[in-house]
Amino acid sequence: MTEAVLTAVVERGDLAHLALLLWAGSASALAGLLLKELSASNRRFSQFVDEIERLNQIFNDHDGG
Predict the structure, then answer these.
(1) Nearby residues of 9 by Cβ (< 8 Å), 6 or more positions away
(2) Which of 18, 29, 40, 46 has the highest count of CB atoms within 10 angstroms of its CB?
């Protein structure tokens, strides 16, 4: 089926549209991947900050008592 679609597109001279579709699809996939990675990075940084806060609480309790 894919070959039939590609053949029809090439025969009709819509190769530029096919190229644009492929570019848009790959750009959208890349943007989705980047958003997923950014979300994971923000989650890891938040966990890091929470851990630093926990250590500060431990050290402050130890110094005060």
Answers:
(1) 15, 17, 18
(2) 18
